[in-house]
Write a structure and sequence with these properties.
With 161 residues, this protein is α+β, with helices and mostly antiparallel strands. The chain has two domains: 7-59, Thrombin, subunit H, CATH 2.40.10.170; 63-158, Up-down Bundle (Methane Monooxygenase Hydroxylase, Chain G, domain 1). Helix content is 47%, strand content 22%. The protein has helices spanning 63-70, 76-79, 84-96, 100-115, 121-141, 146-158; strands at residues 7-10, 14-26, 29-38, 45-49, 57-59. It has a five-stranded antiparallel beta sheet. The protein is globular, with a radius of gyration of 17 Å.
Length: 161
């Protein structure tokens, strides 16, 4: 269970602050919910049932876990499916299942492809969503301001390319 003011990761929103834990009517039942506010989109508020096993909430990773994730390199052959639906399933699975290893591999691969002008519009949109999700946590753990981190993130990845 989380407490008020805890920072948590919500899939797919990214880092949120627990602003309240309160009762709410859901499907004609009174349930306890977390009221979460996105740290990136400050006007976005989510209400997530406390007792749901599918609430997609977890604690932030440690600095060591973040540093380890940043060193992971992609296997390009694994992700270059020409089948748009297959690629979309892999992309969505990475975010919604909070698969940090897959996320960093895809993000690094897509950044490389973007630099070579080989990225579709759909992949560009997914990359932006994935970066928001992962970078919100990295910025929080490394105690950086999110927008500053986002502007410099490609330099950070370049170290590991």
């Amino acid at each position: 269970m989380f407490s008020i003011n805890d920072k948590v990761v919500h899939s797919p929103e990214g880092v949120c602050t627990v602003e309240d834990i309160c009762e709410m009517q859901i499907d004609n039942k009174t349930r306890m919910v977390y009221m979460l506010r996105s740290v990136v989109k400050h006007d976005k508020v989510l209400y997530i049932p406390v007792d749901s096993h599918k609430n997609h909430l977890r604690r932030l990773k440690t600095r060591e876990e973040i540093e380890q994730i940043l060193t992971i390199e992609p296997d390009e052959v694994q992700f270059l499916s020409q089948n748009i639906n297959k690629r979309a399933n892999i992309q969505n699975h990475a975010i919604y299942e909070d698969d940090s290893v897959m996320l960093i591999k895809l993000i690094k691969l897509y950044i490389r492809r973007k630099e070579q002008s080989k990225l579709s519009l759909g992949d560009k949109n997914w990359l932006k969503k994935a970066e928001q999700f992962l970078f919100s946590e990295i910025a929080e753990v490394l105690e950086c301001e999110y927008n500053a981190f986002l502007q410099n993130s490609h330099r950070i990845y370049a170290i590991h390319f």
